[in-house]
Design a protein that fits this description.
- The protein is of the alpha+beta class and about 350 residues long.
- The protein folds into 3 domains: about 110 residues, PAS domain (Beta-Lactamase, 2-Layer Sandwich), CATH 3.30.450; about 70 residues; about 150 residues, Histidine kinase-like ATPase, C-terminal domain (Heat Shock Protein 90, 2-Layer Sandwich).
- It has 8 helices and 12 strands.
- The strands form 3 sheets. A 5-stranded antiparallel beta sheet has the order 2-1-5-4-3. A 5-stranded mixed beta sheet has the order 7-9-10-12-11.
- Helix 6 crosses helix 7.
- The radius of gyration is 26 Å and the shape is elongated.
- The mean pLDDT is about 85.
- The structure holds adenosine-5'-diphosphate (ADP) and magnesium ion.
- The site of adenosine-5'-diphosphate (ADP) has 21 residues, from helix 7 and helix 8.
Length: about 350
Amino acid sequence: MVAGYPFFLLDELQTAVVLLDETLGVVYLNVAAETLLGVSARQVLGQPVAELAAEDVRYIDILRAALENFQPYVQHDMDIRLKHGGTAFVDSIVTPVEADGTSYALVEMVSTHRAQRIAMKQHLMSQYAANQAILGGLAHELKNPLGGIRGAAQLLEREFENPELQEYTQVIIGETDRLTTLLDRMMGHGPAQVLAPLSVHEVTERVRALLAVDSTPGIHIATDYDPSIPDLVADVDQLIQVVLNVARNAVQAMAGKGNLLFRTRIRRNVTLGDQLHRLAAVIQIVDDGPGIPPNMQNQIFSPLVTGRPEGTGLGLSIAQSLVHGHGGSIECSSQAGKTVFSVIVPVQEGPE
Ligand SMILES: Nc1ncnc2c1ncn2[C@@H]1O[C@H](COP(=O)(O)OP(=O)(O)O)[C@@H](O)[C@H]1O
Ligand SMILES: [Mg+2]
């Protein structure tokens, strides 16, 4: 199929185009792809795809999946490590095509501007920090009068002759305590971070055990772990809190019936905030519940945003703060039947 096609037209495109055969050997690449990847067609034609760029296991999985499932895949914000060093930032689409009984993977890559992406993420982070500051101030202002109300209720209680009336003061005291705890959480008051080496699987397994206690028989929990992920230097309790907050939301969204998956992976060359990290650990929490309504998706990490009548809207906001405290970030993609939260934490790089 390859010969005879007017491939020269593809050389006019700005989009990088690479064609791979079933064994992921390079069949063709256009001029834009040569430029983007910094390789020449002469060097790489007939070679395995690993000759195009430094190996990225995740991307190779996507290529294989596209061919096996005969289904197109879109991957946004990819960082491709180039053979000659350096990194290309791209959005990529992999489309399986068939010709004369043979399958090929057609790969398109559009360069995205790193500066633009970083600016976007920084904007989100500073917006987030501003939100936190406003809420922190508000929470602080509310705590003092609450203390007064609680104290007054206690004094009142002592004056009552009739003990039955205590029921009412107990409601006041109980509710002010609940609000105080909530405000403390809003202000981000918690124990200070304690860093120690730990495996991401220690975190996911602890959360799994915690969920097993309160979840219903209709929820099935599965795991898909990459055992080769290096240890993190992190606060184990905080990461458990993060994964638990995210996983509890998933369980709640599935309303008693569905599948929850904990998946762990390594991600290479990730930009978090304005930092490029060579290696990050990713914990994904995947559920097949109804998904997050599209008009809520941009807001779920903001405090007090909730879709549940009994919700506080603090779970994800706290989780995001804790992960930011580790130099990481939580990302989310959601559609009906598939919601994926990715908790990304950079792996400290030791001396090489
Ligand atoms: N896996 C999920 N599936 C569907 N909706 C979700 C999921 N995770 C979070 N959400 C939505 O995001 C909202 C915010 O979550 P969160 O910050 O934990 O607050 P809360 O759980 O108190 O509502 C939830 O109320 C829910 O509407
Ligand atoms: Mg929650």
